[in-house]
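Marked as duplicate of an earlier ticket. Keeping the data here for the record.
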Amino acid sequence: MSATSKHAGGPSGAYTETIVVGCLIAVLVAAAAIVNLIVRLGADDAQQLPTNPFTLLFEVLDGTVAWPAAGTAIAAALGAVVVLLAIACGVLLRRGRGRRSRVDRAASRMGRGRDIAALTHRGARQTSRRLGVDAPGLPLGRTVSGNRPLYASWEDVVVDIAGPRTGKTTGGSAIMVLEAPGACVSTTNKRDLVDATRDPRASVGHVWVFDPQAIVDEPVNWWWNPLTYVTDEVKAKMLADIFTSASRTDPTARTDAFFEPAATELLANLLLAAAVAKRPITQVYLWLTDPSEDEAVEVLRADGQDLVAAGLREVINAPEKQRGGVYGTAKQIASFLTNRQAVQWVIPSAGSRREFDPHAFVRSTDTLYSISREGIGSAAPLVTGLTVAVMEAAEALAQRSPGGRLITPIAVVLDEAANVCVWRQLPNQYSHYGSKGVNVITYLQSWSQGVEVWGEHGMRKLWSAANVKIYGGGVAERGFLEDLSAQIGQYQLQTTSLSHGRGGTSRTSSVRPEAILDVADLAGLPKGRAVVLASGQRATLVRRVPWMASRHADAVRASIRAHDPCADDTIASVTKALEPPSANGGVAAA
């Protein structure tokens, strides 16, 4: 007969007999201490008592030393104190356990101390001082082991993967927006992030809310001209490519190898012509509805763009079937321009609306919220175009700044990036943004969501380019979780087997590698917990700190009350998220 016990990497010499003997010794020591205290407090001053506490204990037991008259009262008082202390310890222990989740045991085997030195306040502060920035960095959470705050430095770019309702808004994107030291751009597909952070951000700069689908019912009191981005034929092609990738309502749909590139080229030429002629962007769609119209050709030729004009003329003179296919595809890409509600934000009007200037924005401490829903009628092409225009303006400013980086970093918080900011070139651009002071944080609901937008190769490139990677739970993709588990690492599990036979009991110890967090642990990661992996640092388990538990809590609540039509329900729901966890060990944090 045999039994097996597992010891998670610790010493295995404490066998049953040793434990029993240790417990008996502890009881004996405690009894001697209590009896000595009572007897010495209640004894007559003239009574001679042995100095050895164990001798005194045995003499009390055999009657050599009399039990003092006040001994029982003293014992009762001590007992009451012990009971009260036990109750207090029990309450504290229960609260402490309430803050712990079922995966917190793994924290001691993950990054701690020097393993994560660069992410700590001290490490991040050293980086920020070197770069001349006051704030240490963007908060990532607090370590489960040690409760130390961790930061992404101003040289880092981040990818955060977490499923729905895991707290990546209250404990992730909202905190990033609130802590941005300079200008901040945030994309989203719902109002909660905007309502919660716009008033705190308004205290440091102007707030711009780009709301072409009326998700937060923002009045159209300013506008942005996408054609200001088109300064030459290269920028025209980039904007056309943005519109093409962002206009796909089905990322899995197959595209035509001839017509889509040709349509994107056509769209680029027409965007350039509209920019040269200083026409509104809606003129592009009007040209697309009439394939025989050659006004754009003449505009480009008059501007000296002879090669571009010749390419456009070639499409117009192509065989009817071919021309129809190219124009039809281009018109489908630009169909968002038929959304009258959306285009109000990108065309001038008779009123005195303020025009948004990306180059002025990146020099400010202003905040830009770009909001759109995915699917049919989405304004994602405009949201993506505006976001990219700001990011490239920041990059241009960085190139003219000391050291080739922004003096004050800009935070680009791409919440729901795969739905509302579909930029095909993002993985290719990601790696160098941190070195320019453009801190990009991309939020995805799953690995496969990123694959739908950028493909498997592009998603791996994006993940690899991120200096800081965060997994916040809520994903059930085995392949991704297996890779993540391997990146987190293993520990040595020591196993002790006890065999009982006629000859006695034998013990056998063995060691085998075990995943620190396996696929099941990662798939069931409790709400409020996240795994942080940073370049050159060991993976560590953190507790996200939601805005409700941050220094911004009062300001955020006031902002929600000012802008959210269901403010009371919203505040009640996030307050409930901070309540103690249920008995299954999960935590109800952000």
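See parent ticket for discussion. The radius of gyration is 33 Å.
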